[in-house]
Amino acid sequence: MSAPALLRAAHVPDESIVEGTRVLRRLPEGARPLPYTLFSLRPLGRVIGAEITGVDLAGPLTGPVRAELNRALLEWKVLFFRDQDITSAQQRAFARHWGELETNPLLPAGDTDEVTRFSRSATMPAFENIWHTDVTFRPSPALGSVLRLVKVPSLGGDTMWADMAAAYDNLPADVRERITGLRAVHDFVPGFARFTDPGLLAARQAEFPPVEHPVVRTHPGTGRRTLFVNPAFTTHIVGLDRDESDALLRLLFAQAHVPEFQVRFTWTENAVAFWDNRATQHYAVNDYAPEARIAERVAIAGDRPF
């Protein structure tokens, strides 16, 4: 089927988003929300994003607090903590409650290889202002990330996240049927070519060859289906001709742009964000020049999508 015919069959115009009522389901079907008893949680969006108070990230977590935070992460997909005056070592220790940390030799490191340091200003422009899921070019992309702002601009520099389970739920039924079982190729080159020396790109291609992932992955913690393609790293859908693949990917990429599936966070000094990389995409808003914005991120090693 040609790309236009595919989209007509799905009742979706090329490169558009279906208007109308959204299905905004935060939890797996049939699950009931439970109270949080060890900290306070304030929702920032209908399906994604919650602010946590009553947890000190500088110290170790007890087992019950860690378990309740994990439940909050699975329910809200991204958690925000304000007024956390922590060190890089304490940030890493917090993230290790969810697993081993991964390194990313393609990005500048902080005080250790496990820390990625994003230092952006008028002379060092941002490149994260594209909807993406981190490191999907790896066979086992990150489980999640913990981001700490070292320097906050006086205006701008927000980060946005999108719930990719809601994005999947709201696809037309025939599009969901069409993409069931499809696989897509993910490659680091398109995402890094904008800011990386061509020689370094070529040198890293043997270390990070293209990989295939399902277009729709099943979240290992919730069982929900999440849309798992993104414009930074997904190049094409296996088995489709280029025109049909491009048209279908444009449609799927557009789902992250729906405001009802998003939360937007305005950073303050000593704020920390912790997100589920298996369930979200994110976008760093590049509107703070000529001021600087400095952030440090640690990523938790994940598993192979299925």
TrEMBL record:
Keyword Ion transport: no
Highest taxon of the lineage: Bacteria
BP-aspect Gene Ontology terms: sulfur compound metabolic process
A Pfam family reported for this protein in Swiss-Prot or TrEMBL: TauD
Molecular functions (GO terms): metal ion binding; taurine dioxygenase activity
GO cellular component terms attached to this protein's record: cytoplasm
Domain TauD/TfdA-like: 41-297
Keywords: Dioxygenase, Iron, Metal-binding, Oxidoreductase
Gene3D superfamilies: Clavaminate synthase-like (3.60.130.10)
Protein family membership: Belongs to the TfdA dioxygenase family.
Record-given protein name: Taurine dioxygenase
